[in-house]
Amino acid sequence: MASISLSFSSSLLPSPISQDKFKIHHIPDSITYNPSLRVIRCATAPPSSKRTSSSSPSSSPSSSVAKKRHWKVGEFPGVSETSLPGSQRRVPIKNVKKKLDRKVKAKAWVNTVTECLADKIDKKQWLQALEVFEMLREQPFYQPKEGTYMKLIVLLGRCGQPQRAHQLFNTMVEEGCQPTSELYTALLAAYCRNNLIDEAFSTLNEMKHLPLCQPDVFTYSILIKACVDALKFDLVELLHEEMAERSITPNTVTQNIVLSGYGKAGNYDQMEKVLLNMLDSTTCKPDVWTMNTIISVFGNKGQVDMMERWYEKFRNFGIEPETRTFNILIGAYGKKRMYDKMSSVMEYMRKLQFPWTTSTYNNVIEAFAAVGDAKHMEYTFDQMRAEGMKADTKTFCCLINGYANAGLFHKVISSVNLAKRFEIPENVSFYNAIISACARAEDLIEMERVFNWMKDNLCQPDDTTYSVMIEAYRKEGMRDKIYYLEQEMQMISDDKVNKLMNEIHFVPT
């Protein structure tokens, strides 16, 4: 993967992110691993037969009785191999040790490469993961399993590569691995994550025609979420009707998704109606995720009073908060610059022994980044590192946005270099943050370089990418650049339509 290096033409020399301003003494719980003892049983040979006492040591060899020996597998008892005809002689195995060593090395090589594949998947490095997987598939002794395909399809969906997930799925089928409901659901989820709702419905129709791959409540829940995010509530109703026809009962997860959709659309009457139905239901009672969903809806809209009111209502229902609940509160208070309440929630978490997570720190960093408060943003990041908390892609997106808002563009470079050193996964949001920083710095040459790196790393630009770049070109009156970007967007849209038509053509009827 091509590495990113920035050099703003309008910036000073790159300077690293400031060192720890303060540290919190954090003593992690010690974990002692006591390996279990293994008892190795050795097979003992039976006692050898006693020697015949009729012969004496002084007797001649011809009169002595030969010893009986325990013959090994493959040997010829009582007969000398040299006395046998050539056709009956056993061909000696040559270089036995070398062959055994090769076998051991091959097994070790497989273990090493599969561990490397698992590591790339964990780090969300989808391109390297596919390269390692192709290397493994070329080996005659390696047979990919369903779980490996599942992990790769999920990874490609999360990394914005739904078409590659579809290609991998087809490769799996061609190689004789039977698809399952879970694998089809993973492919459908890859489409849904990337707002390809039509492709997701095509996958659902394909599942319904395969007896062993029938959709279940999880399949429908994922598709309902995609429709809810796209505010296509007419499709949500159709999916609910289809679930009823197939005797699939919505669970709490499904209802939480619908709650979130109505909340994002501002349809609070429908949201409250769904919630009341959940309270009366015996199969999908509200849970802490329901609580998180509703307070998140009001928190994201900046309606702090409603958020606090619903928080108290759920507490009265007997639902206890969790770490994610407090993180939602912290994020909402941070966006409204209510730093006192934000700090109070964090202290309350400490008091109740709820751990601060990466999301906790990200919410605080994002709050300071939004107002360009680089000083407090750095303090929070330093404290995060001091406590051994692992930063993720969102952490660095917030840092880059924060430095750009503060006009510290040379520290944007430091953040990108640090992300590279930490092997942070580079997704669309990461590149968009850098492109936006370049646009703020009015360094359009660097902006174009990052845009090209983004495409070289097979990361598909989204609407945000194009809108930021078009606005930057519009400020400079570069109409030719705007024209080319608009043409590129149109080509991408046409490609999606063509792929959709091809997939619909091959869906079994």
From TrEMBL:
<feature type="repeat" description="PPR">
    <location>
        <begin position="145"/>
        <end position="179"/>
    </location>
</feature>
<dbReference type="InterPro" id="IPR011990">
    <property type="entry name" value="TPR-like_helical_dom_sf"/>
</dbReference>
<feature type="compositionally biased region" description="Low complexity">
    <location>
        <begin position="46"/>
        <end position="64"/>
    </location>
</feature>
<feature type="repeat" description="PPR">
    <location>
        <begin position="216"/>
        <end position="250"/>
    </location>
</feature>
<dbReference type="GO" id="GO:0003729">
    <property type="term" value="F:mRNA binding"/>
</dbReference>
<comment type="similarity">
    <text>Belongs to the PPR family. P subfamily.</text>
</comment>
<feature type="repeat" description="PPR">
    <location>
        <begin position="427"/>
        <end position="461"/>
    </location>
</feature>
<feature type="repeat" description="PPR">
    <location>
        <begin position="322"/>
        <end position="356"/>
    </location>
</feature>
<dbReference type="InterPro" id="IPR002885">
    <property type="entry name" value="PPR_rpt"/>
</dbReference>
<feature type="repeat" description="PPR">
    <location>
        <begin position="180"/>
        <end position="214"/>
    </location>
</feature>
<dbReference type="Pfam" id="PF13041">
    <property type="entry name" value="PPR_2"/>
</dbReference>
<feature type="region of interest" description="Disordered">
    <location>
        <begin position="45"/>
        <end position="69"/>
    </location>
</feature>
<feature type="repeat" description="PPR">
    <location>
        <begin position="251"/>
        <end position="286"/>
    </location>
</feature>
<dbReference type="InterPro" id="IPR044179">
    <property type="entry name" value="PPR5-like"/>
</dbReference>
<feature type="repeat" description="PPR">
    <location>
        <begin position="357"/>
        <end position="391"/>
    </location>
</feature>
<dbReference type="Pfam" id="PF01535">
    <property type="entry name" value="PPR"/>
</dbReference>
<keyword id="KW-0677">Repeat</keyword>
<feature type="repeat" description="PPR">
    <location>
        <begin position="287"/>
        <end position="321"/>
    </location>
</feature>
<protein>
    <recommendedName>
        <fullName>Pentatricopeptide repeat-containing protein</fullName>
    </recommendedName>
</protein>
